[in-house]
Amino acid sequence: SIQEFAGHRLRQRHLDCIHEFVDGAEGHLTAEDIARSCNLSGDYLRRAFKNTTGESLRFYVERVRLSRAKALLAEQGMRVKQVSYRAGFTNVKSFCVAFKRATGETPTEYQSRIAGS
């Protein structure tokens, strides 16, 4: 239950583990994958991460993925589909929707703008 994890906070070693795992992961990533890598349960990780950082685990992972996607889009010759997969999105459509929501432009528009600068 939600009450069960209400006051729980993650230790720095767990935060370091989470950041390292998410930064190094390619392909689709679940809370359970992250939790397993840091010897935590998925439910505990989600609640304690939010309690500790003020940000949901899902939002954090998406933010890291979008940051990686921006760097990949800046590389010459990288196609949007390749970037989508390498950044860890399950499909191109969900990547494009998340990218546009976060940046206000499509991955292709971003790529064109960056290439033009």
Structure keywords:
mainly alpha; 7 helices; 117 residues; elongated
Total strands = 0
Helix/strand order, N-terminal first: HHHHHHH
Regions with pLDDT < 50 over 5+ consecutive residues?
Answer: none
**Strand fraction:** under 5%
Oligomer: single chain
Mean pLDDT: 89
State the helix count.
7
**Structural class determined from secondary elements:** mainly alpha
Helix residue percentage: 55-70%
Q: In angstroms, what separates the terminal alpha carbons?
A: 51 Å
What about the largest sheet?
A: none
What's the shape?
A: elongated
Round the Cα radius of gyration to an integer and report it.
16 Å
Topology of helices and strands:
Elements: H1 12-24, H2 31-37, H3 42-53, H4 57-74, H5 80-86, H6 92-103, H7 107-116
Helix pairs in contact: 2-3, 4-5
Structural write-up:
The structure is a single chain. α2 crosses α3 and α4 packs across α5. It contains 7 helices and no strands. 68% of the residues lie in helices and 0% in strands. The protein is mainly α.
Brief overview, please?
The protein has 117 residues and is mainly α. 68% of the residues lie in helices and 0% in strands.
